[in-house]
């Protein structure tokens, strides 16, 4: 990226006589990137992690001269992971001159964003959501996604279930809009390899999950999947299941592995043997390099999460797209630039993982290598890749 001195942001709005219309003039010398960050809603536990790393990535790029010599400025809004608020948040970011948007918010919100992205002709990258529908047709012309999709999660789970002989699965999930959407997508794919015995849900702020967990255990599944946005609910679920079904194999989505502060809330040994869908590998040198970059800002003890790595890669993918586009003031060209980004080595996943977009594929990972099954040890800390099964890297 070429180094140059950037001019300050110039944003002008021409208001009509009625005050109802506005036209934003984008500065040719400053690149504005919009960030929709849920900092106060149900997705804040993971959105703020991604949002902090987006800020660090932008700062690092600016220290290197920005993108093609143009300084990057970040404008931030908060939709609180509320799908009803997301369209207005996208329009606010457009009005502030954003060339593209990063959606660090819940799955329900990013799905609601699809239509307004198309209407506004502004590309958006979702660095942490798992919903296949965001990056998939129809209406995905301006929608791009960084993590492996839920269908790929199911493919990995099914590989593990088939190897270990698991034929039945119980699901315990929180009742958030994000998890509701995830379960609706994940369940049909999982049922290709295992019978789902029941799906039990409870409010995100539930104080007791004994009844729901007992109903799941009562169906005598071979394995149990906890589906949650993380935090208090997920730890409570595993504390409860560890007591009433200690011999049943438990799985989790990615959230618990990406929220290390929550591990201290688990009862002694409650997470032992639980396997979660991770996205970080100690064998990826780029993961180690990113860890050092973030520790330089957040402190020497910072524990890297997949949210960090995927948010960082989202910024790098967007930076490359703007370089390809050659004109950040033309959002359609930026979208077309994203479709040409290819083979970017990833900061998450296994060492061989690369990220690409194309006109027909808006999902970044080039293989299942972005996923790593990780189990917890008796100290309630991740102990490393699960010995029983790992997704193939091809």
Low-confidence stretches: 1-23
Helix-strand pattern: EEEHEHEHEHEHEHEHEHEEHHHEEEE
The gross shape turns out to be globular
Please give the CATH class of the largest domain.
Alpha Beta
**Largest sheet: spatial strand order:** 9-8-10-11-12-15-16
Counted up, domains total 2
Helix content: 25-40%
Helix-strand makeup class: alpha/beta
Proportion of residues in β-strands: 15-25%
Nearest-integer average pLDDT = 91
- In angstroms, what is the radius of gyration? 21 Å
Overview of the molecule:
There is one protein chain. This protein is α/β, with parallel strands linked by helices. The chain contains eleven helices and 16 strands. It folds into two domains: 216 residues, Rossmann fold, CATH 3.40.50.2300; 142 residues, Rossmann fold, CATH 3.40.50. Helix 8 links the parallel strand 10 and strand 11. The protein is globular and about 60 Å long. 53% of the residues are buried. The N terminus is likely disordered.
């Amino acid at each position: 990226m070429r180094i140059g001195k950037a001019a300050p942001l110039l944003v002008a709005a021409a208001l009509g006589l009625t005050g109802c219309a506005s036209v934003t003039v984008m500065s040719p010398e400053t690149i504005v990137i919009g960030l929709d960050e849920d900092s106060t809603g149900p997705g804040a536990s993971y959105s703020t992690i991604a949002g902090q790393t987006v800020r660090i990535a932008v700062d690092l790029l600016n220290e290197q001269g920005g993108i093609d010599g143009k300084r990057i400025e970040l404008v931030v809004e908060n939709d609180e992971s509320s799908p009803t608020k997301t369209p207005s948040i996208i329009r606010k970011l457009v009005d502030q001159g954003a060339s593209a948007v990063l959606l660090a918010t819940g799955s329900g919100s990013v799905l609601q964003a699809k239509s307004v992205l198309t209407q506004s002709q502004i590309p958006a990258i979702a660095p942490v959501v798992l919903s296949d529908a965001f990056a998939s047709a129809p209406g995905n012309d301006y929608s791009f996604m960084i993590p492996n999709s839920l269908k790929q999660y199911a493919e990995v789970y099914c590989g593990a279930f088939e190897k270990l002989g698991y034929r039945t699965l119980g699901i315990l999930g929180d009742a958030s809009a994000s998890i509701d959407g995830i379960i609706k997508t994940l369940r049909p794919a999982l049922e290709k390899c295992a019978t789902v015995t029941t799906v039990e849900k409870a409010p995100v702020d539930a104080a007791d999950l004994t009844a729901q967990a007992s109903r799941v255990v009562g169906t005598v599944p071979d394995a149990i999947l906890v589906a949650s946005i993380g935090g208090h609910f997920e730890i409570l679920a595993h504390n409860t299941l560890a007591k009433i079904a200690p011999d049943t194999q438990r799985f989790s989505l990615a959230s618990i592995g990406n929220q290390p502060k929550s591990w201290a809330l688990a009862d002694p040994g409650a997470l032992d043997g639980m396997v979660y869908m991770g996205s970080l590998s100690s064998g990826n040198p780029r993961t180690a390099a990113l860890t050092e970059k973030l520790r330089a800002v957040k402190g020497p003890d910072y524990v890297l999460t997949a949210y960090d790595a995927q948010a960082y890669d989202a910024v790098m993918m967007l930076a490359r797209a703007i370089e390809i586009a050659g004109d950040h003031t033309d959002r359609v060209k930026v979208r077309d630039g994203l479709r040409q980004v290819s083979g970017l080595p990833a900061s998450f996943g296994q060492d061989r993982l690369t990220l690409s977009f194309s006109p027909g594929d808006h999902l970044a990972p080039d293989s299942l290598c972005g996923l790593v099954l990780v189990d917890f040890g008796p100290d309630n800390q991740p102990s490393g890749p699960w010995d029983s099964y790992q997704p193939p890297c091809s």
